[in-house]
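Supplementary Methods, section 5.1.

A reviewer requested that the exact input to the structure prediction be made available. We therefore reproduce it here, unchanged from the version used in the analyses.
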Amino acid sequence: MTELASRRSLDTLQLGRAFAALAVVGHHTTRTLAQPKYLDENVFPIFNAGDSGVMYFFVLSGFVIFLAHANDFGDRDNALRFVWRRVQRIYPALWVALICVVPLVLLMKADLSFYDLFSSFLLLPIEHEPIIDVVWTLRHEMIFYAIFAVAIWNPRIGWIAGAVWLAMSFVQPVLFPAYPLAFVFHPAHVLFGLGILAYWLFNRRDIVSPKLCLTLGVVLFGGTWIAVAYGALLKNAISTWCYGVGAMLMILGGVVLETKTALRLPRVLIFLGEASYSIYLVHFPALSGFAKVATKLKALGIPNELLFVMVATGGVAVGVVFYLLVERPLLTFFRTIGRVPKRVEA
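The structure derived from this sequence is encoded token-by-token as follows.
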């Protein structure tokens, strides 16, 4: 494998992160502004399906985790280091966001139980998301990370557990329709498997025409998006898996094209990819504030389309600020305090 192909950070992956986060911002902006207390209009119906960015990110997550850790299997120390890296990547920024949002939720007299708070801070299973709506995806990521950590520690056990988990997730709509099994075996978990498949195909270097692969992925993902946005296809397991296959082809075609052609993308898109976790994490609470401002501005005759752009841009901007002031300094801090020791005592 070439030096470019072997590196763990590819620009097309950052572009994918940016795309996923911005799609979700568009979706939540549409949902927020459509409420009667705001604009009371579905300004851009195309973003009815913007939550498909989550499906893209699940596939991307499967690919990226294998890209970074494909050589770590079979070593207990590697399993511990993997867990530590995931913890420092996900939890500190999440905790800061929750600490900021929980008082606002309590001011609205929301009925938060102790388990609501406890499960949100630790990303434990829960039936309904109580504080930050988008955190539900992180809970499912934790299941994937846990199984992957087991696979690093003991590949045989981990691979068997992963195969059973993916198989049960595939049949979940039929066999496990209710919580908690519907949570443990969510159909979106199949998308992690598609990301793993994308990595396997990428590592084999068998993709002769990455442009065709990328094009097919865009057509399938985009076609599913349009069909769902305008009601021709329901949001269900079928549409989820269509998104997944489309995302797999897009990711695979993109990374192969980049490694073969030394493709370079605009720095602003790469930056948005780097900030995508923060954007994803904090944009939704911020949208309510910007929506209130948009409601006031509507009285001045500003078109709803422009107000939509302003609100969505505001949500992204808050995410970027959170990245610069919170997430990035936290990541830097954890890098400077050292790595997990070679041997961690039980």
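DSSP finds 15 helices and no strands in the chain. These observations are discussed further in the main text.
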